[in-house]
Amino acid sequence: MAYTVTLIPGDGVGPEISEATRRVVDATGVQINWEIQNAGADVVAEYGTPLPESVLESIRRNKVALKGPLTTPVGRGFRSVNVALRQELDLYACLRPCKYYRGVRSQYDNVDLVVVRENTEDLYAGIEFQEGQPETRDLIAEIARLGGKEIAPDSGISIKAISIAATRRIVRFAFEYARANGRKKVTAVHKANIMKFTDGLFLAVASEVAAEYPDIAFEDRIVDNMCMQLVQKPELYDVLVMPNLYGDILSDLCAGLIGGLGVAPGANLGDEIAVFEATHGSAPKYAGQNKVNPTALMLSAVMMLRHLGERAAADRMERAIAEVIAEGKDVTYDLKPTPDDPTAVGTSQMADAIIARLR
Ligand code: NAD
What we know:
Layout: E1 3-8, H1 14-27, E2 32-36, H2 44-47, H3 53-62, E3 64-67, H4 81-88, E4 93-99, E5 112-118, E6 128-129, H5 134-145, E7 157-158, H6 164-180, E8 185-190, H7 199-210, E9 217-222, H8 223-232, E10 239-242, H9 244-257, E11 267-269, E12 274-277, H10 295-307, H11 311-327, H12 347-357
Parallel strand pairs: 1-2, 1-3, 3-12, 5-10, 8-9, 8-10
Antiparallel strand pairs: 4-5, 4-11, 6-7, 11-12
Helix pairs in contact: 1-10, 1-12, 6-7, 8-9, 10-11, 11-12
The structure holds nicotinamide-adenine-dinucleotide.
Nicotinamide-adenine-dinucleotide binds at residues 69-72, 82, 261-262, 277, 280-285, 292-293, 296, 334.
């Protein structure tokens, strides 16, 4: 059976790692018609937006997409297309497995964690008020009127909202994932001691949902303590579930535990639609150099094959990637003992080595 999958190559290093990944997926023998869709800064001139409706339509139609990273201008310009995609398609769960592969350079060799990040609300909802604008002044006055605290008049404001419904569905997602994947424990991460009405609500709802899953252990950790614990004893943790901002930060921390962003895959999932993408961004300084590690996007594609029900192909692809990394010969600079190792190969050569190992 052939699948149609939307492929968003992305920008920066996106096109190179997307091409490398597409070649490896095709080499597994799974028949995929790739529907190429472009988004981001490069299409603004043509479509007047970095996220054309045709991209959303393609993903809605195909239900599955593989996506390269897209650059977001800092502090100006358009809002993140990556965040907009998740919101537009209600991809409420961000799933980021962080598993150590032998041969990767890391301080740890015993990490097998899964970060489940709520994707739609919290400080990332984009409810923001710019400093000095009339609406911002109104909001500051309204908060003072409602008996809230004084906010300095020269403030910019970002609103953090966390709902019962969105918390319930992300925590259920985490427990369902744990159950389906033989995981033993879910840890809710929060700052409920300080933000009682948002993180406090997250923790209360998480505890309620946990009671529905007596077969899976449940505990909670305050986010700052969680960071320290993960650095000291990551082996104690299994599935972590948390609001959006902490999820963003802890995903990178956990990627660091397994050897860096070059090997950290991910998926953004809704009830019907799934978009698979690496945790890392567009690494613009390496764009066009055939240099960066394609593993993170390739492991995201492995997750995609599993999602499509192609478990055998997914297992073969994962094994081929793991073998090439373990051998340590045909790997990119970040997997070598030093970043300037002259034996490092390029993105496409690493893909060739993985294809040669597929069997
Ligand atoms: P980044 O993840 O792009 O890169 C940070 C550093 O990590 C790189 O300089 C490089 O040293 C390393 N790195 C990243 N990917 C690698 C790979 N595949 N192989 C080897 N090394 C790798 O983070 P950034 O520099 O903070 O962000 C650059 C742009 O990407 C920003 O515009 C940001 O908004 C965007 N971004 C997009 C996504 C996404 O598309 N989902 C995610 C994160 C960041």
